[in-house]
């Protein structure tokens, strides 16, 4: 019932935001470089993953005079290093991490010095860990994929000169969560009881040519309850992210 209520709210919000769209709109592109420290632990197994991930990200935004905006966010790592400890054995692994999301929202640019925005949409995040096993031709793969509906809020407040503090948070209603651990070939348990959220703090600086230099420090958490089919159940995935970007 909770998911149905939140999805109904998201659909209503999307329709209201789309109705405010006007023909006069502006397009913005924000490429960025990011660093992510990833950790995952399981309360039901002797398992821990720790890694450093370096990301390439891009946001494409369309903002109209009617206060509606649309944002497409994409990201994928270009290099990483990580170790996992399982059953008291530590091993080096390769990590691939990516995300994609579409958000639609409304923005208020007139009530105070700064802006205020609300949004919903649809998002996906995926992480794959690959480990070579001595004596076995096929690598051992661990996967975590989450599809979610975001509900977010952000404030941008004038600080000094051309700089603005940015603070925001997002609750993520996880619609489906897939996990596959330790090379299990036929088990892709779907998680049904999950908690996910994100919070961030940053600063934007407006240059003389109207470009914006952006910085963001954020924290994400994905909490997964036990599933009987999981080899490593009841996991908690945490991401600490730092991004530097330029908005054109």
UniProtKB/TrEMBL annotation:
User: Signal as a keyword?
Assistant: yes
Q: Which domain of life is it from?
A: Bacteria
Signal sequence interval, chain numbering: 1-21
Keyword annotations of the record: Signal
Protein name per the record: Outer membrane protein beta-barrel domain-containing protein
Q: Which organism is it from?
A: Marinospirillum insulare
